[in-house]
């Protein structure tokens, strides 16, 4: 069963690890993503999706140097079976699509790829690179594509060394509300 306590324990156990080639921790990245969503007035589901979007990295206990070694842990898929029974589609689907959203934006938005961090550019290559026009059209037709793109933009912005955010406990009531609604 997914609980806020289980998320707290996972963040306590794995959150201090570095976020794949970036100069911040997994927990800092998650909190910055959720904080950005909250600051922009996104709903509880998207704030929680931002908080949990890289949960697959924590579940797989990915080492910070695996990306540099050319290992893609497929984090966007690892977390889905863990989350799907307990959270609504408007949380889970954007998480599952946030890597595809990066590939989509690289294909359709001039300058997007150039603005990615070096680590994100490296992971993009491992994840298949920019989408083809056909894949981009299919992605944009997905019912959760817009939410996945919004999550992606918060993800991209959440790599600021030293940025102060509220602690994990600040966001857990939103997660708890979604968990209770689904129960």
Q: Can you give me a brief rundown of this structure?
A:
Helices cover 64% and strands 0% of the residues. The chain has 183 residues and is mostly helical.
Please characterize this protein's 3D structure.
The chain has one domain (4-182): Hypothetical protein af1432, CATH 1.10.3210. The chain is 64% helix and 0% strand. The chain has 183 residues and is mostly helical. The model has no long low-confidence stretch (mean pLDDT 89). The protein is globular.
Which features characterize this protein?
64% helix; single chain; 183 residues; Hypothetical protein af1432; mainly alpha; 12 helices
> Helicity range of the residues?
55-70%
- H/E element sequence: HHHHHHHHHHHH
Q: Summarize the biggest pleated sheet.
A: none
CATH architecture: Orthogonal Bundle
State the end-to-end distance: 10 Å
**Rg (CA only):** 15 Å
- What is the mean predicted local confidence, pLDDT? 89
CATH topology (level 3) name: Hypothetical protein af1432
Coarse morphology: globular
CATH class: Mainly Alpha
Task: Specify the number of helices.
Answer: 12
What's the domain count? 1
Report the strand count: 0
């Amino acid at each position: 069963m997914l609980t806020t306590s289980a998320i707290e324990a996972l963040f306590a156990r794995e959150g201090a690890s570095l976020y794949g080639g970036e100069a911040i921790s997994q927990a800092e990245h998650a909190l910055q993503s959720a904080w950005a969503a909250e600051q922009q007035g996104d709903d509880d589901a998207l704030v929680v999706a931002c908080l949990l979007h890289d949960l697959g990295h924590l579940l797989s206990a990915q080492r910070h140097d695996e990306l540099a070694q050319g290992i893609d842990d497929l984090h966007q898929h690892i977390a889905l079976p863990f989350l799907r029974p307990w959270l609504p589609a408007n949380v889970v689907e954007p998480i599952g699509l946030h890597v595809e959203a990066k590939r989509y934006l690289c294909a359709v938005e001039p300058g997007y790829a150039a603005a990615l961090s070096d680590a994100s550019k490296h992971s993009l290559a491992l994840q298949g690179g920019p989408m083809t026009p056909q894949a981009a059209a299919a992605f944009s037709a997905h019912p959760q594509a817009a939410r996945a793109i919004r999550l992606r933009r918060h993800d991209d912005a959440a790599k600021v060394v030293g940025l102060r955010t509220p602690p994990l406990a600040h966001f857990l009531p939103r997660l708890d509300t979604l968990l209770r609604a689904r129960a």
